[in-house]
Design goal:
heterodimer, A: 69% helix, B: mainly alpha, 14 helices, 74% helix
Chain lengths: 267, 289
Amino acid sequence: MSEFGIYLKMIVTSIRAKMEYRLTFVFTFFALVVFYLGQLGVILIMLSKFKSIAGWTIGEIMFLYGLMVFSQGLTTVFFASLNDFESLIINGDFDRFLVRPLDPLTQILSSRFEITSMAHFFIGSTALYFGSTYAEVEWTFFKVMFFPLALLGAVLIQGGIRLAVSAVAFWTLRNRALVHTAVYSSKEMIYYPISIYKLWVQYFLTFLFPLAFVNFYPSHYFLNRGSSDLLFHPVIQFMTPVMGLMVFAAAYAFWKAGIRNYQSAGH
Amino acid sequence: MPESVIRTFDKAGRRASVVGAVRMSAGVYINFAKKSFERQLAYKFEYFMGVFNGLLFIFIFTSLWESIYSNPAAAAVSSFDRRSIISYAVFAMIIRISMTMEDSYTVIKVRTGAISMDMIKPVNYFAMCFSEMIGLSMYHWFTRALPLVAVSLALFDVTMPGRLSNYALAFVAWILGYLIMFMINFLFGLLAFWVIEVFSFQLMKYGMFTLFSGGILPVDFFPDWARPLIDFIPFQYVLYVPTSLFIGHVEGSQALRLIGLQIVWVAALSVGCWWMWTAAHKKLVVQGG
């Protein structure tokens, strides 16, 4: 069996394991939708009261939110197994991946296929649909072509962050608090246009912790917003795929350095 | 609550030890709280990340309101002015942190079967659970909420309220809001006696809490047609009421009315907890017990 065939088999197995509990799956899906409707509700009520946030109208903000949630769902599909990476290290389970003749990262990523991200897709695409309707987005040929590229870049950025945060556990054993801040809390920053923040924070979200490329910059292109609230040359609207590759390459190098440094917790 | 314990323990034939439990001094429960407080001190990095997280959220929402209120038309349609909405954002987040609880406490105990040991112990489970949460929350009060007050006063455009009555009213509203939050969590935790996957219910609770508690969005901003719904569910009494009373957004007889409604909710939820605990006790099937 080819190496790729093995990964495929692992993914199919984990999906089938999830589908064993069909009722749980349906119920979790429904619960996640309620959860995200709570978040979306806050934004919608805020906008119905105040009409716009930093010059972004209700449709534009929904598009921004949709792009964020949809790409988050896609990231979760591939990277969910890293959420609890510290327990692999603490329990010594990571050693099992090292002794097999396959790349440890690919093994871990295909060990858990998070099917609950269907809820993210549902909420994300609903928000994108209504967002682009209200904001009257014109889906030109190039926008349709660029959309999957922007999604890919967004997934690589978020996946790269998860990978780098996981690699920290090679040195510290524990990383749960860091996961909480860097993966979950931080994304609340980009539910809103980053132009609401002070300048240094906008720079931070562009260069050091480039979440702004997940939704803020590409949305400028899809929404034809021009460059009124861009700090940089308008070409930045198209840089998400490039940024994604850079972030993921850096994170992967960091992960590799972590494995070289890794000493088992000892079991 | 003690009555319910006596009755349920009667069935198990442990009358003697239970009568002792009811008479037991508050010392036991204070110890539960103390231990739960001390357990938290072990994690230093978690602590700093926790403070940072709180600061991050305060920063996000003060930035958001600053931006919205920089448009003069926004201030005109709102019952908050720029200063008061910034205070609201800061203190709502701090009060939320001061109420940090562990909401899978009962769920884990049911899943592992530890609940059976707790039922044998001569203590009231509700009171034990409550004192553990108080310990945890007191930890967050002193080590996260209070430092965040100091940092926020330095970093953001907020001041402490000047009148003593604000502190007194907010103190009462905090206790009542805390009780409401605790009992909502307790009820959701008891679901573990009937369903294995409680997490989904908790997700729905988080969603409703985000939208209706006033932690991010004061309930004043909801459209008029939604107000009856919000008044009919308990979430606004957890964060919106203590925060509004603290910053002086609601005053006088209106403030007392809100505290009265909090008391009504505390009473209603107490009955709910008692009823559901009795039912859960009957239902108890411990895995591997």
